[in-house]
Specification:
CATH class of the largest domain: Alpha Beta
Order of helices and strands: HHHEEEHEHEEHHHEHEEHHHHHHHHH
Shape: globular
Strand order of the largest sheet: 1-2-4-3-5-7-6
Structural class: alpha/beta
Radius of gyration: 28 Å
Strand content: 5-15%
Number of strands: 9
Largest sheet: 7 strands, mixed
C-alpha cells in the first residue's frame, strides 16, 4: 500500500531541510548587566523566614495558618520604604476538595527615574500543600527584596505580591494578574521556595499552554552567574518537549505566561510541588536573593522582552518558535506525502472513502463514550476535578474506592458501546486494503490538525503514526512487534517524565494523566485530536494484526486499489480468496 520509494524520498528531503533548520540555532539572548552589584541582606532574610515559620509553619489555603501568614505578610509589606498602601485581594477557588477562600497581599513601588513602560511583578507563593511544613524562603526573599528595591532608583514600577492558593492551580497569581490586566507588565519573577534545598537554583520557564519564556530564563541564568550562585543543570531536549506537549507545572510563572507576560520562577528543586523542609540556610537565601535582585535590575534596564512562545533550547542555543514548528512539520512530511499519494490513487480508482471513514468513526465512539461517562462521574464527585481550572496536585487525585469504581464504570461504558457498534465498525473485511489506505489518509489529516493545535503534542504522536504506516509493509511478525514498541516508546517516556514532575510512581502517574485529562483540566482540542490519532493508529494496527494472525504478512503489503474479488467481497457477494504460499512465503 505504502509507496516505499516516495516515503524514503520524503525522508531525504526532510533530513536536508532539518539540517538547514538546525543551522538557524541562535543564542536566546538575555538582559543587560545591572549598573550596581546586588546588596541583598541574607541575615535579615533568614530572620524573616524564621519569623514566618513561627507564626504559621503550615499554610494550606483556607486554613488558620493561611490567614495568619496573610496578616503577617501585610505587616511586613507595610514597612517597605517608598511602597504604596498594602492591598489585599480576597477570592475563592474551586478545588477537588471543595471551595477554598484565601487572599493575595501586595504593594507597589513606583518608578523613581525614567519612563519605561511596563511594570515588573515580583511574587512569591505563600501557601503550602496540606501537611507540608516549611517553604518560607520565597516569602522571606520577597520581603527583603522589596526592602532593598524601595531604596534604589528604578526605570520601571515594581509590584510585590504574596500570592495565595498557588497549590490550587496557581489561582492567586491568576487572580492578581486578571485584576491588573489593564496595567502593562514587562515581566514577572516568581520566588518558589528558591532557598529550600541548597543544591543549585532551578529556573522554570514553561506555562500550562505549551509556551515558554526562554529569553527571561536565559537572563535568570546569567543573573545566577553574575551573583556567583550555584545553578542547576538545564533540562535536556526530551523534558522540554514533554513539558510543551503535556504541560505540567506548579509554578506561578504559568499564570503570567498564560496572558503573554514573560515570566520565570526561581526554585530550589526540579519543577514539581514543594515538600517539607528545614529552615533555609543563610548562604542559600543569599544566593537566591542576589540572583533575584540581579535579574530584576537587568529587566529594569532592558527595553523589552519577547513574549512567551513555543521554542526549544539545544546546547544553550534556541531553536526559534517558527523554526520549531517547521522542524516538527518536516518530521511529519513523509506521512503527509504518503497520505496525499494514497488520496490521489484512490480517487483515480474511483474508490469511495466515506464508508471507511465511517468505520473509523464507529471505532472512535467507544472511546468517546468512556470519556464522557468519566467526565460525568468527575462532575458527580467520584473522581477529582480541576483545581482552579488547571491540573490539581497529585495528592488531590487519589485512586481510592470511588475513583476505582468510576474507572470501572467508564471502561464498562466503552466496552458496552463497542459491543453495540462492533458489527458496524468491522462489517467490511479486514483485508480490504482501501480501508487501511483511508486510515493513513485520516492519520495524515489528524496529524496536520494536531500540528496546528500543538506542534509538540504532534512530536509525541509521530512515532506511533509512522510505525502504523510502516507496519502496513511489514513482511515478518517480528517487524510488527518492533514497530509496536517504537509506537509505545514516547508514551512510556512521557509517563516516566511526568512521574518525576509529580513525584509519584509510574502506574499512578498514568492514572493521574488520564484522570486530569477526562476532568477537563488539560483543555479540549488537544486531547480530542490525540484520542482521534490513537484510535486511527489502533484501527491500522488491528488490520496489520489480522494479517499476522492469518499468516498473510509474508504475502507482501496491501494494494491500495482493491481487486474485483475484494470489491465483491466487500459487498458480500463473493468470499475473499485466501492466497496460497510457496516455501519462500510468496503468494502464488
Amino acid at each position: 500500500m505504502l509507496n516505499g520509494r516516495l516515503y524514503r524520498l520524503s525522508w531525504l528531503v526532510a533530513a536536508l531541510a532539518l539540517l538547514v533548520a538546525l543551522l538557524t540555532l541562535e543564542s536566546p539572548g538575555g538582559a543587560p548587566e545591572p549598573p550596581l552589584p546586588p546588596a541583598f541582606d541574607a541575615m535579615a532574610a533568614r530572620a524573616i523566614a524564621a519569623d514566618l515559620a513561627t507564626v504559621a509553619p503550615e499554610r494550606a489555603p483556607g486554613t488558620p495558618g493561611d490567614v495568619a501568614s496573610a496578616n503577617w505578610m501585610a505587616q511586613q509589606l507595610a514597612a517597605v520604604p517608598g511602597a504604596t498602601k498594602v492591598g489585599r485581594q480576597r477570592f475563592s477557588v474551586i478545588t477537588p476538595a471543595g471551595r477554598v477562600v484565601t487572599e493575595n497581599v501586595y504593594v507597589a513601588l513606583p518608578a523613581r527615574s525614567g519612563s519605561s513602560p511596563g511594570a515588573i511583578v515580583i511574587s512569591a507563593p505563600r501557601d503550602t500543600p496540606p501537611g507540608v511544613r516549611g517553604a518560607e524562603s520565597g516569602s522571606a526573599v520577597l520581603v527583603q527584596l522589596a526592602r532593598s528595591l524601595g531604596t534604589v532608583a528604578r526605570n520601571r514600577p515594581v509590584l510585590v505580591v504574596s500570592t495565595g492558593a498557588s497549590t490550587q492551580g496557581n489561582a492567586g497569581a491568576r487572580w492578581f494578574v486578571s485584576r491588573f490586566s489593564g496595567l502593562p507588565m514587562a515581566a514577572a519573577v516568581s520566588l518558589d521556595d528558591p532557598a529550600g534545598i541548597p543544591d543549585g537554583l532551578h529556573v522554570w520557564d514553561d506555562g500550562q499552554d505549551g509556551r515558554r519564556s526562554i529569553p527571561v530564563a536565559a537572563a535568570a541564568q546569567q543573573a545566577a552567574v553574575r551573583a556567583d550562585a550555584p545553578l542547576a543543570q538545564s533540562p535536556g531536549p526530551f523534558p522540554q518537549i514533554a513539558s510543551m506537549a503535556v504541560p505540567q507545572t506548579s509554578g506561578d510563572q504559568a499564570a503570567y505566561i498564560a496572558l503573554g507576560i514573560p515570566s520565570v520562577s526561581l526554585a530550589s528543586r526540579p519543577e514539581g510541588p514543594v515538600g517539607s523542609g528545614n529552615l533555609a540556610t543563610e548562604d542559600a537565601l543569599g544566593d537566591a536573593g542576589r540572583t533575584a535582585e540581579t535579574l530584576i535590575s537587568s529587566i529594569d534596564q532592558a527595553d523589552a522582552l519577547p513574549s512567551p512562545a513555543v521554542g526549544l533550547v539545544i546546547n544553550e542555543r534556541e531553536l526559534r518558535p517558527v523554526m520549531s514548528r517547521i522542524v516538527i512539520l518536516l518530521l511529519a512530511l513523509p506521512l503527509l506525502v504518503a497520505a496525499l499519494d494514497l488520496t490521489v490513487r484512490l480517487r483515480r480508482a474511483g474508490v469511495r472513502l466515506w464508508p471507511f471513514i465511517a468505520a473509523l468513526l464507529w471505532r472512535l465512539l467507544p472511546v468517546v463514550a468512556a470519556v464522557l461517562v468519566a467526565h460525568l462521574l468527575v462532575t458527580a464527585g467520584m473522581m477529582a476535578g480541576a483545581s482552579g481550572g488547571w491540573p490539581p496536585l497529585a495528592e488531590q487525585v487519589p485512586f481510592d474506592l470511588p475513583a476505582a469504581v468510576a474507572a470501572l464504570l467508564s471502561v464498562g461504558a466503552g466496552v458496552l458501546t463497542w459491543m453495540l457498534v462492533r458489527h458496524r465498525a468491522m462489517r467490511r473485511d479486514a483485508e480490504v486494503a482501501s480501508r487501511a489506505a483511508t486510515g493513513v489518509i485520516a492519520l495524515g489529516v489528524l496529524c496536520l490538525l494536531l500540528w496546528l493545535a500543538g506542534p509538540f503534542s504532534l512530536l509525541i504522536a509521530l512515532p506511533a503514526a509512522h510505525a502504523a504506516l510502516v507496519a502496513t509493509r511489514a513482511r515478518r511478525p517480528w517487524h510488527v512487534i518492533a514497530l509496536g514498541l517504537v509506537a509505545l516508546a514516547p508514551a512510556v517516556l512521557l509517563v516516566w517524565w511526568a512521574s518525576g514532575r509529580i513525584d509519584r510512581g509510574i502506574p499512578y502517574t498514568a492514572w493521574y494523566l488520564i484522570e486530569t485529562t477526562v476532568a477537563g483540566a488539560r483543555g479540549i482540542i488537544g486531547p480530542v485530536l490525540a484520542i482521534a490519532v490513537l484510535v486511527t493508529v489502533w484501527s491500522l494496527g488491528s488490520l496489520v494484526m489480522s494479517r499476522v494472525r492469518r499468516g498473510l504478512v509474508a504475502a507482501g503489503p496491501y494494494r491500495p486499489v482493491p481487486t474485483e474479488d475484494e470489491r465483491m467481497a466487500r459487498r458480500g457477494r463473493r468470499p475473499l480468496p485466501r492466497p496460497s504460499f510457496t516455501r519462500r512465503g510468496r503468494a502464488s
